[in-house]
Amino acid sequence: MKVSDLFVKALENEGVEYIFGIPGEENLDLLNSLRHSTIKLILTRHEQGAGFMAATYGRLTGKVGVCLSTLGPGATNLVTPAAYANLGGMPMLMITGQKPIKKSKQGRFQIIDVVNLMKPITQYSKQIVNGNNITSTVRESFKIALYERPGAVHIELPEDIAREEVDGELFYVHSPRYPVARDESLHNALKMMYEAKMPLVLIGAGANRTRIGSAMKDFIEKLGIPFFVTQMGKGVVDEFHPLYLGTAALSDNDYLHCAIDRADLIINVGHDIIEKPPFFMREGGTKVIHMNFSPSSVDSTYFPQLDVVGDIACNLTALTKLAEKQEAWDFSYYMRVKDESQSHIVKYFKDERFPILPQRVVKYIRDVLPKDGILTLDNGIYKIWFARNYKCFMPNTLLLDNALATMGAGLPSAMAAKIVHPEKKVITVCGDGGFMMNSQELETAVRLQLDLVIVILNDSAYGMIKWKQEGMGFENFGLEYNNPDFVQYAKAYGATGYRPTSCEDFASTLEKAVKSKGVHLIDLAVDYSLNHEILNELLQNKTCLV
């Protein structure tokens, strides 16, 4: 059969449901092969949107998300999504086209070395030069993309190779089996736990990727050890659980760090060094047990005293069976810190000022979304407020990026979430700057008839950098701009737009939009005036409880 037909069959063999992207003339054979496939092509308005959607599909399903572009500029537009997926641990395959490699009459037109461009930001990048290798290359790509730590892979298919005739067989697809830790490691972990007076559990991004919620919950509840999470570890265990202390949205100086600094042992489950450190280790300070699929990478801020390496869920289950709650453990201080932290978090939930405080936005969205509803965030200063203040009932119900921390991913991520989970309510919160970086995907969302709510926090500026600028003592300069009329902008795409004029108006508008069909955009004026006062001054100068 034709190579492009075999390529599609290999993708079907891997269970691919969707390909997100924008084809070019170099992809036309592949596009024609897709016409008769079970795989659905989702045409986007920019390759970046396609890449973010494919990565989010991978994050939510644990399967490989697939995106497609042509050569040259189409391929370079996938660079940011490649980094987003690779740093974020999201399995994704990028397929790019290329001019004929055996005989071409177009010289160097549009040609760059995409394979080598992608190598530093993917786990695998290869050009198909022989159609007989297509099925083995696809199988190898999917294995690499899926194995812990998952990430981005890339295949380039030249147009002359795509139309060649070949014989080929599909490869058997099997799931990976990970080893478990040796008994010696588990007993060493028990020894450290029993010697501690105030152990603490940290849940990181790796725990969210690998679906260990029930094993983690059993461990915490049997031993009664309080836990906290990183931004990308949110939701592994229900954050309304009485033993939940909070989220390490900052690296230090938050109220939560009063508890972290008092701990004599942190059991760090699913640590991913890509995230900003949730705490800093110091020589002679708190001891750390590292539980993950791979050993810890030692640096000046993270040097665990013990690595428990292997399948996280299996090792947690084994440790839970062996361990017993210790009478010497004392968690009363942690509970006092939790109460103190919570009192500061809820302090602004009822503030009626308008433009609205980001803390109040968090409260309204948490109130309106059901337990299994999905919230995606673009990147901006509001991400800190959501990470600190928004509690998750379930894994992967708050999708934020604390790895590449790119702008422009919020809307495409929400679209992918709705495609994967059409039965769930989905809201995306974007800054006005991040929204405009991929706002053209509004057309895609409307065309796909998605039920989606977009909340734009509008301050006509790059708010995160303004906060940093103020914190460094610089004058306000170079970060403000004008926005389009977002209500009319939504209407132009066939969506519904709103512009609330009070907190009460926003609350009723949000509830109406979440319950309605179609794409709804809310242009919400936001007040960031307390960012510096709280994050730079109040937290920096706080005094921990005695």
Task: Give an account of the 3D structure.
- This protein has 546 residues and is α/β, with parallel strands linked by helices.
- It folds into three domains: 3-162, 3-Layer(aba) Sandwich (Rossmann fold), CATH 3.40.50; 183-339, 3-Layer(aba) Sandwich (Rossmann fold), CATH 3.40.50; 347-536, Rossmann fold, CATH 3.40.50.
- 39% of the residues lie in helices and 16% in strands.
- The protein contains 23 helices and 18 strands.
- Strands 2-1-3-4-6-5 form a six-stranded parallel β-sheet, with helices on both faces.
- Strand 5 (124-127), helix 7 (134-146) and strand 6 (152-158) form a beta-alpha-beta unit.
- Helix 3 packs parallel to helix 5 (79-88), helix 3 packs across helix 17 and helix 15 (358-368) packs parallel to helix 22 (503-515).
- The chain starts with a helix and ends in an 8-residue tail after the last helix.
- The model has no long low-confidence stretch (mean pLDDT 95).
